[in-house]
TrEMBL record:
Residues 4-96 form the Chorismate mutase domain. Pfam families: CM_2. One of its GO terms (molecular function) is chorismate mutase activity. NCBIfam families: CM_mono2, PRK08055.1. SUPFAM superfamilies: Chorismate mutase II. It is an enzyme of class 5 (isomerase). Residues 1-19 form the signal peptide. It comes from the Bacteria. Pathway: Metabolic intermediate biosynthesis; prephenate biosynthesis; prephenate from chorismate: step 1/1. GO terms for biological process: chorismate metabolic process; salicylic acid biosynthetic process. Its EC number is 5.4.99.5. This is chorismate mutase.
Length: 175
């Protein structure tokens, strides 16, 4: 009984500073992924492919430079950026596949340049928050449950989530 009470009391404690920062980071990742339905809708309406290699290259270059500027190791950020892009494309493909069977009714689209601006802004916030998290001791594999609870995009598979989380664990501060 005492053990149960201790567990309940521990669960009721406020989040520690690092847990709160991790939560904020995970929320930002979810926010970035939440834009993918609108991106998929725009691309479907415009009859554009999901994959845009030139845009991906721009995003990776800009984000890698931003990571370097704020004190993240650019080499360790690369796999995380790729995992984010892969997850984003997977989400878009799944929405588009779903819409083949059940078309979205009166799908209003947001211009792609506006969406990309929002995604870039959120991406920069992710890198900044990631720097804060790493400066406060970083994340641990045990943070996966918190990540799973925060990253709730419906078209993100468990495998996609795990790949994204694993890549996130590998990001380091600049030496």
């Amino acid at each position: 009984m005492l053990k149960i009470l201790c567990v309940i009391a521990f669960a009721m404690l406020p989040l520690s500073a690092s847990a709160a920062e991790n939560q904020q980071l995970f929320n930002l990742i979810n926010q970035r992924l939440s834009y993918m339905k609108a991106v998929a809708a725009y691309k479907a309406t415009a009859h554009s492919p999901v994959e845009d290699i030139a845009q991906e290259k721009k995003v990776v270059e800009k984000s890698t430079e931003q990571a370097r500027k704020i004190g993240l190791d650019p080499k360790s950020v690369g796999p995380f950026l790729k995992a984010q892009i892969d997850a984003a494309k997977a989400i878009q493909y799944r929405y588009r596949a779903d819409w083949l069977s059940v078309p979205e009714k009166k799908q209003q689209t947001v211009p792609l340049d506006i969406l990309r601006s929002r995604i870039a802004k959120t991406g920069d916030a992710i890198l900044t928050e990631l720097h804060t998290v790493l400066s406060q001791g970083g994340m641990k594999p045990g943070d996966l449950a918190l990540f799973d609870n925060a990253v709730t995009e419906p078209n993100l598979s468990a495998t996609d989530k795990q790949k994204l989380f694993d890549a996130l664990l590998e990001v380091k501060l600049k030496p």
